[in-house]
Amino acid sequence: MKPVVRRVLTAVLGPALAVTVSAAPAVAVAAEPYWLTHTAAFAPPGPISWTATTYDLDAVPTGGGISVEEYVDGDRTAVRLSVSGLRPDREYGAHVHTGRCGSLPEDAGPHYQDRPDPVQPSADPAYANPDNEVWLDLTTDARGAGSSFATQNWRFRAGEARSVVLHDEHTATGPEHAGQAGARLACVTVPFTDDE
């Protein structure tokens, strides 16, 4: 049996850097509902790896916000993505990735896949699809805000889901291009359920 854990992580970047972390006491129970919210503000690459990083200041301006929520109950996982302060009326692709954000967009690694494609980079629709990955594409409104939601009938493997990456366009689904969404614009490292 694993503990029920509720964590709220908030990272706000401004003149001073403030981080708030709170956790309810662990209680052993038969089921393991788990809820996480991670919120951050975008900034250019720097020494603080747990903030949100923008690699394209035009598409994802400094100070724009991102929030990732995860809810796990048994073998089901739900992920919600919310953004603010981005470009208005613009499409963004978004996926859960295997690596933590770094100074380079590639540092976040490939998309997390429940059934990993033996051929990487993955572009086979049998593996690169919204049932086997977590796709969170969204379109911002006139104020630059937007949100998306995905549910899966599986949970992340321990230590293999570590970030959410915003891409330049909505995700392709066709053969040889499945899962592709253009350039990596920004990234936020997220302490998903089993990445502790």
Explain what the structure shows.
It contains no helices and 12 strands. Residues 1-30 have low confidence and may be disordered. The protein starts with a strand and ends in a 7-residue tail after the last strand. The chain has strands at 3-13, 17-23, 27-28, 34-43, 52-54, 65-73, 76-84, 91-97, 138-139, 146-152, 163-167, 184-189. Helix content is 0%, strand content 40%.
In terms of topology, how is this protein built?
Layout: E1 3-13, E2 17-23, E3 27-28, E4 34-43, E5 52-54, E6 65-73, E7 76-84, E8 91-97, E9 138-139, E10 146-152, E11 163-167, E12 184-189
The succession of helices and strands, N to C, reads: EEEEEEEEEEEE
Dominant shape:
globular
Mean pLDDT: 84
In terms of DSSP E residues, the strand content is 35-45%
Rg from alpha-carbon coordinates:
16 Å
Q: What is the β-strand count? A: 12
Number of helical regions: 0
Major beta-sheet overview: 12 strands, mixed
Query: Could you tell me how far the N terminus lies from the C terminus, measured between alpha carbons in angstroms?
Result: 17 Å
Q: Helix coverage percent of residues?
A: under 10%
Low-confidence stretches: 1-30
